[in-house]
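Slack export, channel: ligand-projects

TW: morning all. Re-posting the request from yesterday since it got buried. We need the structure predicted with the small molecule present, not the apo form. The ligand is nicotinamide-adenine-dinucleotide; the SMILES is in the block with the sequence. No rush, but it would help planning for next week.
GE: picking it up
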Amino acid sequence: MQRILVTGGAGFIGSNLTLALQERHPQAEITVVDDFRSGDFRNLRGFQGCFVSADVSRLDWSARFRDETFDAIFHEASITDTTVHDQLLQAHDNIEGFRRLLEFALPAQTPVVYASSAATYGITSGVNREDQAPAPANIYAFSKVHLDNLARRYARRTPSWKIVGLRYFNVYGPRETHKKAAASMIYQLYLQMKAGRRPRVFRAGEQKRDFVYVKDVVAGTIAALAAPRSGVYNCGSGHPFSFNEVIAALNTALGTSLEPDYFENPYSFYQPHTEADMTKARNELSFVPAYPPASGIADYVKILESGTV
Ligand SMILES: NC(=O)c1ccc[n+]([C@@H]2O[C@H](COP(=O)([O-])OP(=O)(O)OC[C@H]3O[C@@H](n4cnc5c(N)ncnc54)[C@H](O)[C@@H]3O)[C@@H](O)[C@H]2O)c1
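GE: finished. pasting the full token output, ligand included:
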């Protein structure tokens, strides 16, 4: 790969992806497009490529990149705060941003890997498979369902073009600090425990989530380029892990023994269990996550404690 475009590269996953691509392909020209609405320039420390500050949903792609072609496009840009309830804004910026990008990539059939989400499955419990019907519970999830729909439509019209979506589950890892309240539960609990406080979770901490380490997400996203055809794939760890288990893993990594501080769950329904079925990703992308949650958390805490990110 000589020319790579990453949207949302100043964000959590996008910056980890950009820096990993730079390391793997030192000769490649990497371009990042981001408008900093939730990203942070500090995530791109060490990035030697080209930065374009623009909103992907308003950018005139053809004018901006006139004669430039890319060997691959990774689309991570999105409003990611699920508490943004402005339906027009979420739908416009997320869906139209993707449509513009696809229109730009279409003539050269540049392979596109884009970030979908486990949120497309809705408030279900148990194992999620890619062929499940979507059930978006909020406008963010709705926008992601329409990314999948758009990708399917463009791929059907141009079967030789590869457009691959990844349904990320609960991602955690370095370079998520800027997300503040929207950062992972693992990071929130780490901060509480680091400050010497008992970690607060809903009673009785047995709710399970498919937490996936960002290093695995980066590996899965790059592996998606080699997908045999267009389609959508789960990207989780495949190991549901309870909040109590997260706290135990953080205690081990931090050398503490803080007990959970349980409080009543104010929600009438709260997903008891999320889990990615990773069969399709394993069979078709040869993608097997390397970090079960306990090892991902250990690695993450080591990085946080080193103060390097
Ligand atoms: N983190 C997770 O657990 C998770 C789970 C499922 C899906 N995802 C998806 O993964 C992708 C990356 O998420 P993240 O966790 O890194 O979030 P993030 O908020 O850290 O990153 C998103 C980046 O996109 C940029 N951006 C947003 N809208 C833009 C626009 N219209 N034009 C240009 N730049 C724009 C932001 O400034 C930010 O840098 C998103 O598409 C998100 O929906 C993330």
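GE: first-pass observations. The first helix runs from residue 12 to 24. The chain has two domains: 3-170+214-237+278-283, 172-209+240-275+292-306.
TW: perfect, thank you
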